[in-house]
Write a structure and sequence with these properties.
247 residues, alpha/beta, Rossmann fold, 7-stranded mixed sheet, 9 helices, 7 strands, 19% strand, binds S-adenosylmethionine, Methyltransferase domain-containing protein, methyltransferase, methyltransferase activity
Length: 247
């Protein structure tokens, strides 16, 4: 079946909102991702995106469709998953939560990092992502990966139960980030780390600019939740990494 050209045009900014556009396919700087009704469906109880600095409310409903983008082998070149995972400082036996795990791009890396005695909690708000994560873990024999559906405003972590939390390309989608940060802090063990990766203001891929968050703003949000956060050195071309510690 041939795709209608209009559909193709509409789909591009939608992908761009999630970092899918490449340098050769610049992200259109529109305020509203195309496919608006689809992307901003009433399911979340929000009315599309908020104003400047507000979260990008977005649905990620059909996992197989997103897998083409999130697990595109070309992603490794700019996402640099080894570098991201190195920032987590994982050890065998740890419990790490991947918050907004999507289709599980990071799961093989995290599963290796914590080893068979450790645990990876692959958490997502979308039921179909969680279904996909379960099937993927079974298929790839990632026995230490457990997929769970979580609520939009609650990471669903037991009090003081996780050593590490990873949040990649998700922070800009979260509403009420200060409250959310406090819930992540509660889920961490003392001394535990939260690593957040998101797009720089200058990046040629990522969400529309009005939804991007500066590292300084992110650090302030995390500090308000009692987390000691800092930007760490990295070589990712389009993103920055913030590491936050629970004292
Ligand atoms: C752009 S994708 C990133 C997926 C994955 N982290 C990666 O790097 O491939 C964003 C994911 O976060 C999920 N998400 C958005 N808001 C969330 C929330 N409040 N809690 C948990 N997951 C959320 C979406 O359903 C989607 O799967």
């Amino acid at each position: 079946m041939r795709l209608h050209p209009l559909l193709v045009i509409l789909a591009l900014p939608l992908l761009a909102g999630c970092g899918g556009a490449s340098a050769t396919q610049p992200a259109p700087k529109t305020a509203e991702p195309a496919g608006g009704a689809h992307a901003h469906g009433g399911h979340h109880g929000h009315h599309g995106h908020h104003g400047h600095g507000g979260p990008l409310v977005h649905r990620f409903e059909k996992a197989e469709d997103w897998a083409k983008e999130f697990d595109d082998p070309a992603r490794d070149a700019w996402q640099k998953p080894d570098e991201v995972v190195a920032a987590l400082r994982l050890s065998p036996g740890m419990t790490v939560a991947d918050l907004g795990a999507g289709t599980g791009y990071f799961e093989p890396h995290l599963a290796r990092g914590v080893g068979p005695s450790g645990k990876v909690l692959a958490l997502d708000v979308e039921a179909d992502m969680v279904r996909y994560l379960r099937e993927r873990a079974a298929k790839e024999k990632l026995d230490n990966v457990e997929a769970r559906q979580v609520g939009l405003a609650d990471p669903g972590l037991g009090q003081g139960t996780v050593d590490r939390v990873l949040i990649v390309d998700v922070w800009h989608h979260i509403d009420g980030r200060k409250d959310y940060a406090a819930k992540v802090r509660d889920g961490l063990k003392p001394g535990g780390l939260l690593v957040i990766v998101d797009f720089t203001m200058e990046a040629t891929k990522g969400p529309p600019k009005e939804h991007r968050i500066t590292p300084e703003a992110m650090i302030a949000e995390l500090a308000s939740a009692g987390l000691e956060a800092e930007v760490v050195p990295e070589t990712l071309p389009d993103q920055y990494i913030v590491v936050a510690k629970k004292p």
